[in-house]
Specification:
- The protein starts with 7 loop residues before the first strand and ends in a 13-residue tail after the last strand.
- The protein has one domain.
- Helices cover 2% and strands 41% of the residues.
- The longest helix has 5 residues.
- Strands 1, 2, 3, 4, 6, 10, 12, 13, 18, 23, 24 and 27 form a 12-stranded mixed sheet that branches.
- A hairpin with a 2-residue loop joins strand 2 and strand 3.
- With 408 residues, it is mainly beta.
- The protein is built from 2 helices and 27 strands.
- InterPro entries: Stress_up-reg_Nod19.
């Protein structure tokens, strides 16, 4: 394919598409979903639009928009999280009738993170901080996708989008609503705690006060008395930048490290027991300036590499997320930006961005088997569904012209 040296516009699978030198960018719109005041939308969209072929993805950004494509502020529709997850699905043809379940026989391909198989399997994903968090990987690094050698015969590579959006218009308590406090939802099923299973596969404990399991699709937050507003349709708008894969690209591996990871060892076997979220207890009311709440996990990294990029996913109240090397050195600290206004991207009181780490090439390397510490810091005070995740990209090698320090 001949790449253009100037920027051009075209249509890529119904999306706005641009080519600038060797970089390609396409903006897509997800399937629409409907919300009403105080309701939760927890959706999974299969086979979303995604660039095809053997490519290297450089960035993946997203935000919530309305039917007209206008950005929607977090104080109206709180984007709790979105995740893009890779899977391989069977190619159905006339000799193999399409099954009722389109995911029959599908193979999920998780990231290289250390959590148990079904916890945090995504390749990209953030939350309300998405608009203000940079996702771009520096040259010549990229996430390699679509390599035919890695796709079994009779399968094709696809992507799904998982999201949770909470419409907080008219909510009696927006903080409780966005933190998924169980006692703030008026339509939890009668036998909710007996019929809902936690990450351990057991019925949810009555001590579970809030989080993902109390934010199921179409659950309803308490509203202010007399508040009325129409239901409306929203969507995720996501922009992907990529290059065609060639020998100039260096592949990276993507990890999600979780501050709740309860690592266990049975002989030489390491078991990771990530909880994905946690509750921060009420602060000591007698202390004027209560210290921050710290959640941390010591995580052995079976395979290390050069740190290329890092950022944290955290919620309102976050102070920062940091990963440390086994010797105590700081590998990456990600700090939140809080909004000060009303407009999308600057919503007062919300985390509207997280800082990113771009270490000097070759300056930070995690060794194979090194135990890194993931630390999540929040302001003191009762919070449910808090998250402390660090997203990092590691590379096995550096460009040939990069100096490699002897002490890394």
């Amino acid at each position: 394919m001949v790449l253009l040296s100037t920027t051009t516009s075209a249509i890529y699978s119904g999306a706005e598409f641009e080519i600038n030198n060797n970089l390609k960018t396409a903006t897509f719109i997800s399937q629409k979903f409907e919300v009403g005041p105080g309701t939760v939308a927890a959706k999974t969209f299969l086979d979303i639009e995604f660039p095809k072929g053997h490519i290297g993805v450089k960035s993946f950004d997203s935000e919530i928009v309305d039917e007209e494509g206008n950005s929607v502020p977090l104080h109206e529709a709180y984007l709790h999280h979105w995740f893009a997850i890779k899977y391989q699905s069977k190619v159905w043809n006339t000799t193999s009738p399409i099954p009722h379940d389109p995911m029959e026989g599908a193979i999920y391909i998780r990231n290289q993170g250390t959590c148990n198989s079904y916890i945090l399997p995504a390749y990209w994903g953030l939350g309300g901080e998405s608009r203000g968090t940079i996702s771009k990987l520096p040259n010549p690094y990229a996430v390699e996708l679509g390599d035919p050698k890695n796709i079994p015969i009779g399968f094709q590579e696809k992507w799904l989008l998982n999201l949770m959006v909470i419409d907080t218009r008219g909510a009696k308590d927006k903080k409780s609503c966005s933190e998924c406090r169980c006692n703030h939802f008026i339509n939890l099923p009668k036998n909710f705690y007996n019929d809902t299973f936690g990450v351990d596969g057991k019925p949810l404990s009555p001590n579970y006060k809030g989080g993902l399991f109390c934010c199921k699709d179409e659950l309803q937050c308490k509203l202010k008395k007399g508040f009325e507003a129409p239901r409306r349709k929203l969507a995720i708008r996501y922009k992907i930048t990529w290059v065609d894969w060639d020998q100039r690209q260096i592949p990276v591996r993507f990890y999600i490290l979780d501050a709740t990871d309860r690592v266990k060892k049975i002989g030489s076997l390491v078991i990771h027991d990530c909880q994905a979220e946690y509750t921060i207890p009420p602060s000591n009311h007698g202390i004027k300036h209560s210290p921050p709440h710290i959640q941390k996990a010591n995580i052995p990294m079976e395979k290390g590499g050069y740190l290329i990029y890092g950022t944290a996913h955290m919620h309102t109240g976050a102070i920062n997320g940091t990963i440390y090397g086994q010797d105590g050195r700081v590998l990456c600290t990600s700090n939140p930006t809080y909004g000060k206004g009303e407009e999308p991207g600057n919503e007062k009181g919300y985390v509207v961005g997280m800082s990113t780490c771009y270490p000097e090439p070759g300056s930070i390397k995690i060794k194979d088997g090194e135990i890194v510490t993931m630390e999540s810091r929040y302001k003191s005070g009762y919070r449910t569904g808090a998250m402390g995740h660090m997203y990092i990209y590691l590379a096995d090698r550096l460009p040939e012209n990069i100096y490699r320090p002897t002490q890394v």
